[in-house]
Amino acid sequence: MALSNIKICVRIRPEQGSERAPKFREVVKPIGDKVLVFDPPGESDDGGLKKIFTSQRNKDLKFSFDHVFGPESSQLDVYRCTTATILEDVLNGFNSCVFAYGATGAGKTFTMLGNKENPGVIYKTVVMLYNKIDAMSDEYTYDLDVSYVEIYNENIKDLLRPGGKIVLNEASNGNIQLRGVSMHQPKSADELLDMLLKGNNERTQSSTSANSESSRSHAIFQIYLRGRQKVSGTTATWKHSKFSLIDLAGSEKGNVTNTNKQQSEGANINRSLLALGNVINALADRKKNPKNFIPYRDSKLTRLLKDSLGGSCKTIMIANLSPSSKSYEDTYNTLKYANRAKNIKVELVDNVVQVERHLSEYPKMVSVLKAELAALTKKLEDKNSNAHKMMQDFNESYKMFDAKCRKVNTIIASLYSWSTITT
What we know:
Elements: E1 2-5, E2 7-12, E3 28-31, E4 35-38, E5 61-64, E6 67-69, H1 75-81, H2 87-91, E7 96-102, H3 108-112, H4 121-135, E8 140-152, E9 155-158, E10 167-170, E11 176-179, H5 189-202, E12 205-206, E13 214-215, E14 218-229, E15 235-247, H6 260-284, H7 300-304, H8 306-309, E16 314-321, H9 328-341, E17 345-348, E18 352-356, H10 362-422
């Protein structure tokens, strides 16, 4: 068992559209790849945003994180510093989670899902996961199940089999379970990505003044892995893990929504994100007060994230920011939550067990070992045969070369003799 902090990464997206207007300015400046400055000094705030958030006490605030991605960062850069760092852990039996956090229009969905030209973190993770499973196929057999749900207005919807009722339960061991969710067994990365695309088409979205394709729900894509060691004497190693990839809906103010329905959606989104913020604050304070109550049950989102935030899980938070003073308040709040989340510590335990094989399995083990021995013997014979052929070819080539050398020596000797006679 080992203690680990949640890994916090911040991604600053490029300025967009109206943010480039003269009345707005950049309020986030990265310094290297681990530090950023919020509201750097020497900037005048002429955007009409004279609120408490723009007062002098909030200017020139420095924040440090595990990684800071500037506006020029690529999807590949984000993937390499986030999910790529924990794929080995997932295959070795550690539960893991990556979630994108931030305000509406901050770039969360682009980071997690991307588009056809710039696939996001989930796409790159799935492809590499299958590559690693193939690379380990000589030692382990892996079974893979996936589910994809959204939380919309505090209701859980199955994105891969719409219409079914899903109930959120907590097992006696503390694990969170979704009863009624459909589980799917893709055979390849392409098949899994087709499921992801199908689920995205079912996700609730609408246009707001902050984002033309605003996600109105929290989307949770989960991969369940079970690995079995192929042959290991009288015992075998079994590994199982859960990998959650989450695109949270963005917090938003009422003035960015266009309809009463969107205002209701926004209220539910903000309520669940407020509950998430309260959980982050409580977990961050747990070191000072170990008996501090953690309000996981305040929303379905926090219940679903319970084992990711406070359980045995390697968790990465990608906080997405707009660099513009137009989103000054949202950016500041996101940075505060991300900074608090740095203090969360979790106890990591792998899900690996050693299983004693039953006596009835021994004949099968012997057959498998005999088959492997025969295959290895054939490979060795083929190599020996190839080596013998290569040696024969070498000897023939050497004989030809030796004959040519003798012929050349004879010619040289003749020329020398003739030269001696003529002189």
